[in-house]
Amino acid sequence: MTPINSTGYDLKATSFKPEKKEGIKANSKEKVMSLFEDVTPFDWEDWKWQYSKRIRSKEVLKKIVNLTSSEEKGIDLSGEKLTMAIPPYVASLIDANDPNCPIRRQAIPLASELDISEDEMQDPCAEEAYSPVHGLVHRYPDRVLFLVNEMCAMYCRHCTRSRMVGDGSKGKGFNLKTYDAAFEYIKAHKEIRDVLISGGDPLLLSDQILESIIKRLKNIEHVELVRIGTRVPVTLPQRITEELVSMLKKYSPVWISIHFNHPKEITKRVKFACDLLADSGIPLGSQTVLLRGINDDPVIMKKLMQELLKIRVRPYYLYQCDPIMGSKHFRVPVAVGINIIEKLRGHTSGYAVPIFVVDVPGGGGKIPLGPEYVISKNDEGYTFRNHDNEQFFYRDPK
Ligand code: SF4
After folding, report:
1. Model pTM?
2. Domain that holds residue 28
3. What are the pocket residues of ligand 1 if the criterion is a CB atom closer than 6 Å to any ligand atom?
4. Exactly one of 143, 227, 302, 343 is catalytic; which is it?
């Protein structure tokens, strides 16, 4: 009989090797497992094991990755800014010999993180300024961002919230008591119809605590939409258990936005996690951050968007990387993002084209950007260009 653990994942399938994409060599699961004594495939499929065994030191990482001097320095010095934590599952996807491996670039700090540019900020989107109570950001009229914890499975080096995420080290503190003020605010503001639960990563909360949050939100009459923003299906897919999915299903609709940045992240294991969610009728969208040397290439981005559709995740936003402290090595000019949209729109399924946005510094919100398709306009109508640069006239109705 095929062994099944609480995630419902077929353990025979855990011996899969990550697919080699874009010519990138993969580390191996077996090599990472050898770091731990007496580890079994059941342990590997247990999200709490994965979480508790995250790689946090240079000494351990060196056993499976040929670290560059910049990475070594980054690990030594980045702790106060944004700690390093890499689940064994993610480590198994890292190319041991390629410093440009897209998973590696997102997981392992570089010395460049300590290089701060003039335009960089702790809180570029001014979330603190738009926070009426602890843990709530109210920037748009009918929706709020509800931050419920500060922990993540992996600390992404480009994180917009690097000022506050970490394993309890930033002193912000979120717990059931601190949620009360947020619930009171949402109840008192009848214009709020949409709540995005984020963090940190809300899916690192226990099923019980997450359920209590969703239930309280669903009991507020004017809250029509509850969304969860998470990276866990990518960095800790074992967390997507049948129990979690059954709980979420009870409160349908709960929308989930998943942070994906590269096609290499879409493994068979991630597909399994997304299938569990999608099979339960949970609508899935993706959010992607445009990152230098990782996905700033129209070919890679098209592949990512097409692969997302294959696992039933609808590309939603492509973000210009926010100017957080020490992010210069990740950021590319806005024109790069516009060019990527130009190469997607009309060249692949419309469902595979996200909205490219700049979350403008100072709290101005998301500004959508894209190529210009209007060539000229007169009293009769518009001259447009299409994706092949052919021009067409559209007569406006009188
Ligand atoms: S999972 Fe999201 S919040 Fe956490 S470190 Fe990564 S980008 Fe930041």
Report:
1. 0.93
2. 11-113
3. 152, 155-156, 159, 161, 165, 200-201, 231, 259
4. 143
